[in-house]
Amino acid sequence: MSGVVPAKIAASFTMAELAVLTVIARQCQRAGVCTLHIDAIAALAGCSRTSVQNTLRQARLVGLILVKERRRPGQPSLTNVVTVISREWIAWLKLGGFKRLSPTNNHFHSRGESARIVPRRDSYRPYVRPGGSRGGLFG
Q1: Alpha-carbon distance 69 to 83, whole Å?
Q2: Under a CB-based contact definition with an 8 Å cutoff, are residues 112 and 119 in contact?
């Protein structure tokens, strides 16, 4: 098993819980901590809000993460700050780092061909069109 969660850790979680842990791990790779709302984590992981809450509770009990609650008396609470504290998981995340893309770095090469990322007007996901000889995102 390969991914953002090491196999030893992943063996004790379900697929929905692994999806939640993957979202949290990616956020921790990017920013050091995960400050997403529970609903946002659920949407990115493709599971329910309850699955996210159960996963956070179970991972905290196992000692994988630290969850800092930011309650404010008389006001809505701020989002929780989730930090990965498992040494094995931190080492795994450092090994499997990702490449940050700048806005101008939108070409990729596959089998000798180049491609261009073209935004769609009717959809959130961009379309990748082969043969991007012209530079830029829109031209």
Answers
A1: 12
A2: no
Helices (H), 38-79: 38-45, 49-62
pLDDT at 43: 95
Domain boundaries, the chain: 7-95, 99-132
Token digits for 35? 């400050």
The CATH code belonging to domain 7-95 is: 1.10.10.10
pLDDT tens digits, 29-79: 999 999 999 999 999 999 999 999 999 999 999 999 999 999 999 999 999
Q: Are strands 127-130 and 78-84 parallel, antiparallel or unpaired?
A: unpaired
Distances (CA, A) of 112 to 20, 24, 106, 109: 36, 35, 16, 6
Q: How far is CA 118 from the centre of its chain?
A: 23
The pLDDT of residue 96 is 72
Note the maximum CA span of the chain: 60
Cα angle for residues 12, 14, 18 (degrees, 5° grid): 90
- C-alpha 73: how far from its chain's center? 30
CA 45 – CA 12 distance, rounded (Å): 18
